[in-house]
Amino acid sequence: MLKTNFSYAVLLTLAGAIPFLFCGGLVLLYPVDSPLAIQALIAYGAVILSFVGAVHWGFVLSRPESSDTAGTDKRSLGLGVLPALVGWVALLVQLRFHLPALALLFLLAGFLLTVIAETVGHGRGVVPSSYLILRWSISVIVMLVLLAVLVALLAGMRTG
Fold first, then answer.
1. How far apart, in whole angstroms, are the C-alpha atoms of residue 54 and residue 28?
2. Can you tell me whether residue 155 is helix, strand or coil?
3. Are 46 and 95 in contact (CB under 8 A)?
4. CA distance 113 to 126
5. pLDDT band at residue 61 under the 50/70/90 scheme
6. Residue 106 and residue 108: Cα distance in Å, rounded?
7. Are 2 and 34 in contact (CB under 8 A)?
8. What one-character DSSP code corresponds to residue 63?
9. Quick check: 38 and 86 in contact, CB under 8 A?
């Protein structure tokens, strides 16, 4: 059963990468027509960043309560909120100030810092190995897309 669940999780993770790849591809291949694709990429990135943060609440709430893990649990719950806040700031930066490059930078930082914190959490026994492997795999794809679009914006390919 565990193998089947992990296989399904891999499939859904790959499906979740489609909007990143699609929007990023539109921006890079059709820069003149890409303002909506950039907005969609930023919005989807913020949503997914919130999702990966929420997973940590599931880790904490699925474990039996123990005074040995109280400090770690509080950090994990905090980590669960921070990615959503970073995603929200990225959305505000794009919607209010029309600064897509800055919004992409916030998202890049959010994804990178979250996966680094998860790696630390794995070392402390809080984050399962299978989850960490999946997260690093998809995070690399997501961060490469966000970075490529950011570089394109900064290089003047298009003016978001």
1. 31
2. coil
3. no
4. 16
5. confident
6. 5
7. no
8. S
9. no
Q: Are the C-beta atoms of residues 118 and 135 closer than 8 Å to each other?
A: yes
Token code pair at residue 8: 């399904």
Do 46 and 90 touch, CB atoms closer than 8 A? yes
Give the pair of three-digit tokens for residue 105.
Answer: 């930078």
Distances (CA, A) of 51 to 29, 57, 158: 28, 10, 29
pLDDT in tens, 128-144: 999 999 999 999 999 99
Q: Tokens 């984050």 sit at which residue?
A: 127
* Domains of the chain: total: 1
Q: Note whether residue 41 is domain-resident.
A: yes
Q: What pLDDT score does 119 carry?
A: 95
Give me 66's structure tokens: 């123990």
Q: Does residue 5 belong to any structural domain of this protein?
A: no
Q: What is the DSSP string of 128-141?
A: -HHHHHHHHHHHHH
Domain membership flag for residue 12: no
- With beta carbons less than 8 A apart as the criterion, state whether 76 and 120 touch: no
Q: What's the pLDDT at 159?
A: 46
Alpha-carbon Rg for the chain in angstroms: 17
Which residues form the domain of 145? 37-60+75-155
